[in-house]
Structure to design on (353 residues):
């Protein structure tokens, strides 16, 4: 137990952060270089105004037509993403670890808020899972990887909640929480979760083409 | 004469009861069972208070001297022949400006966890120390 803790708290944590940030830089650089080679016209038509306009419409809830057509999915997905990013970044227990390791700290959530937000993440994942199975078009598009990604996201939040509540077996839950969180971080750049940092590129591409070339909306 | 015995035995009972009461109260005063610091009082706790058996720790091999924990630092070096017994941890660990509570919390975490990890004994996970009610 002590060895696993020391490993998860030290080398594996470093590894996860390095693969996460290194992976993001690598994938961004690779796609930008590939576009320069294969799709050079993208650079020629790049428009900061239309790119920003597209990003704004897709980052504001109900800012796009498809979001208005699917109000439940839109509500769930925005609540999910806010909680998904907010809890790990502003959890008191996490900030304490940053303070101990790097002597930096910032604003934190109350314990109750963090727990409610974690439940929102978990219930959202249940919704996404059921939606993948029940809705025919989404089911057709779903691969095994999509279900595994869902599990990858659920694990650190479920075990984190278990650890925070101190329920029976919380020792194992805490170790699983650390390990699954590190696995998630390291896999983000190399799975569909890369939409986390590819989102701006998608919007820059579509926004510029629709705005500057086709004179149409892309939202 | 009988009356005298009655009074003296009654006095003896009272004296003994007083002694027991005194012993129990001093026991309660000197045996430390939780990690406390006045810097934490009056503030909302994020996690439950930490149970800590001071007497048990004094018997451990890894705790060589009082200043293993009650340390005193000067010019970035731990002093061999000095200790901080009787001082609150916050007397030094709140000295830095800004974010002072986090400094104190970090100091406790480092002190306890470092030793527990080195000795492979005692709690290291969040919920092992911060257990039970707030």
């Amino acid at each position: 137990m002590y060895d696993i803790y020391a490993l998860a708290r030290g080398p594996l944590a470093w590894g996860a952060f390095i693969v996460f940030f290194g992976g993001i830089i690598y994938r961004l650089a690779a796609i930008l270089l590939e576009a320069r080679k294969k799709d050079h016209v993208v650079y020629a038509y790049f428009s900061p105004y239309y790119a920003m306009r597209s990003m704004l419409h897709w980052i504001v809830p109900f800012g796009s037509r498809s979001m208005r057509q699917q109000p439940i999915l839109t509500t769930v997905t925005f609540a999910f993403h806010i909680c998904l990013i907010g809890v790990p970044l502003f959890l008191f227990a996490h900030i304490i670890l940053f303070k101990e390791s790097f002597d930096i700290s910032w604003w934190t959530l109350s314990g109750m808020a963090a727990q409610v937000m974690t439940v929102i993440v978990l219930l959202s994942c249940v919704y996404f899972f059921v939606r993948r199975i029940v809705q025919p078009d989404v089911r057709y598009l779903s691969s095994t990887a999509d279900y595994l990604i869902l599990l990858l996201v659920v694990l650190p939040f479920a075990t984190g909640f278990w650890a925070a509540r101190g329920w029976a077996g919380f020792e194992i839950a805490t170790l699983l929480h650390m390990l699954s969180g590190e696995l998630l971080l390291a896999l983000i750049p190399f799975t569909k979760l890369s939409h986390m940092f590819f989102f701006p590129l998608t919007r820059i591409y579509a926004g510029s083409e629709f705005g500057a070339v086709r004179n149409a909306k892309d939202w | 004469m009988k009356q005298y015995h009655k009074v003296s035995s009654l006095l003896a009972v009272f004296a003994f009861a007083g002694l027991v009461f005194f012993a129990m109260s001093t026991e309660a005063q000197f045996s430390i069972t939780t990690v406390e610091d006045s810097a934490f009082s009056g503030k909302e706790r994020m996690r439950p208070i930490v149970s800590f058996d001071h007497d048990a720790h004094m018997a451990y091999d890894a705790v060589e001297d009082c200043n293993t924990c009650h340390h005193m630092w000067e010019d970035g070096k731990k002093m061999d022949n000095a200790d901080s017994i009787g001082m609150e941890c916050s007397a030094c660990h709140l000295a830095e400006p800004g974010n002072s509570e986090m400094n104190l919390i970090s100091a406790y975490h480092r002190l306890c966890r470092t030793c527990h990890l080195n000795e492979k004994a005692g709690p290291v996970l969040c919920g092992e120390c911060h257990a039970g009610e707030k």
Chain B touches chain A at residues 46-47, 99, 102-103, 105-106, 109-110, 116-117, 120, 124-128, 130-132 (CB under 8 Å). The helical segments of chain B are 2-30, 54-58, 90-93, 100-119, 126-129. The first strand of chain B starts at residue 73 and ends at 74.
